[in-house]
Amino acid sequence: MYRRFSERRILTPGPTELPQSVKAALVRETTNPDLDPRFFQEYREVVEMLRPILGAWRSRVYVWVGEAMLGLEAAVANAVRPGAKVLVVDNGVYGAGFADLVRMYGGVPVTPGFNWRRGADPAAVERVLERERDVEVVTLVHCDTPSTVYNDLREIAKVVSSHGALLIVDAVSSIAADEIKMDEWGVDVLIGGSQKALNAPPGLTILAVSKKAFEKAGEVGRQSFYMSYRVWDDWLEKGGFPYTMSDVLLYALRESLRRIHEEGLASVYQRHRAAREAARRGVEALGLEPYVERVECNCPTATAFKTPVPAPRLRRHIWEKYGVLLAGSWGQLEGDVMRIGHMGIQASADQVATAVAVLGAALQDMGIAANVGKAVEAVLDAFK
After folding, report:
1. Residue 13 in contact with residue 199, Cβ under 8 Å?
2. Which regions of 194-243 does DSSP assign to beta strands (E)?
3. Which of 64, 198, 252, 273 is the most exposed place for a label (fewest CB within 10 A)?
4. Where are the beta strands (DSSP E) in 101-235?
5. What is the pLDDT of residues 97-132, one digit of tens each?
6. What is the model's pTM?
7. Which regions of 178-334 does DSSP assign to beta strands (E)?
């Protein structure tokens, strides 16, 4: 059998493929980040480029070396004191996973058991907060990629703020794909990562911290160096970093941000909404059922769907025969759900059409009826 592809394509919900200009940034001449004043200036410029994407004009914004999990743990470590009650909006793998971090730092998670196939109802969140009036912190995943469920951050933030609780938001899979107004909406800690819609390599945490969250960290008094907001503030004020930064990763992130701003945020967000609609129409045209019940409850960056054959078998077939890597899921969704990533450069007609076409071809290979032409047409129509 001849090889049916020349280059492999990665269409997973992160890490994503890198645009050529981002790859080029990785081979820029390196420097000593601790001593080169130009590098510190570039770091500052990256922070300013992030502010409009995060809606963080008044909040502190940091870029740390470490995968986004570092930011998630730091957010909990700096906000949750032993014995503190924390409402965990648990409608998804990552959403529910916040409870483990809360327990790790001595907190008491409140897990309502929200439906994984739809966004959390802000009214339901409010009912929990009215019942559990001593909740100090709320954790929320904006876009839970394992299930691809999408939460209404703006409305939930409004509810949390009205109850005086601190809101921690995992926005790893929504930053640079969906509008976020951290300061205006009342988000206290916002966590992002470099490897999703930003289309940079994994290895950087983006962290935005409100004044309220910064002060809370002082009250909690967690003894830490790597995860301390105060340590970072003190070092940045002196014109340096508490540990050696990765210059090449920062260069890659800077180039990604340059591309995003060159396109314009309104266009970026519209393109991701079109990709969400296109992927959903495409999988439905193949006779498959999207995991999330309604398109408005689906992430703009990934689409999950149920498979008529075991997902690992179907994924492997697509990868080995067609050279396209799609994703499965894990936890209670493992084996039953597959996912198409449409974040960053993936959120385009050609990339989503490729994913849907090879998915349909693989189903046909396995003897399952699938109208590939109709599915591709549905994808392209969504981008008109």
Report:
1. no
2. 204-209
3. 273
4. 108-110, 135-141, 143-144, 149-150, 166-170, 189-193, 204-209
5. 999 999 999 999 999 999 999 999 999 999 999 999
6. 0.97
7. 189-193, 204-209, 302-306, 324-325
